[in-house]
Amino acid sequence: MPDVRIVAKAMNDLADDWHWVTLVEATELEPRVFRALQVRTRCGLMISATPRVVQLFDMGAPDTPTCPRCLDDGLNPALRAAISEVIESSERISEPVGLAERAGGSARCRAALG
């Protein structure tokens, strides 16, 4: 039984934030009704630690959650900052990679490719 991940919020439990909600080992009983061993959010909220039936309602959920901790994707903040720095530094390379390869490239481009 696979996990099912959705953007959702409990009607009275999760305040105003939309969360990544995981239905652990979920089985679809009928459309929008699942039996799950656990129900939890990516940010660590345990909605149910015991098996239960979950009914989903269309409440106009966004494509991604609004909960900042769910958006962090569980990465350590220092690691996330390091990844962001690498991405930003690669965007600052001024010459196209294809052009750099044909012309021998700069040391920065060769290091980024190699």
Structure commentary:
- The strands form two sheets. The chain has a four-stranded antiparallel β-sheet, with no helix packed on it. A three-stranded antiparallel β-sheet has the order 3-4-7, with no helix packed on it.
- It is an alpha+beta fold and 114 residues long.
- It has helices spanning 68-71, 77-91, 97-102, 107-113; strands at 4-8, 19-24, 27-30, 33-36, 38-41, 46-48, 52-55.
- Strand 3 (27-30) and strand 4 (33-36) form a beta hairpin.
- Mean pLDDT is 76; it is low at 105-114.
- It has four helices and seven strands.
- It folds into two domains: 4-57, no CATH class; 75-113.
Topology of helices and strands:
Layout: E1 4-8, E2 19-24, E3 27-30, E4 33-36, E5 38-41, E6 46-48, E7 52-55, H1 68-71, H2 77-91, H3 97-102, H4 107-113
Antiparallel strand pairs: 1-2, 2-5, 3-4, 4-7, 5-6
Strand order of the largest sheet: 1-2-5-6
Number of extended strands: 7
Structural class: alpha+beta
The helical percent reads 25-40%
The DSSP helix count reads 4
End-to-end separation:
41 Å
How confident overall, as mean pLDDT?
76
In short:
The protein is an alpha+beta fold. The chain has helices at 68-71, 77-91, 97-102, 107-113; strands spanning 4-8, 19-24, 27-30, 33-36, 38-41, 46-48, 52-55.
What labels describe this entry?
114 residues; alpha+beta; 2 domains; 3-stranded antiparallel sheet; 7 strands; elongated; disordered C terminus
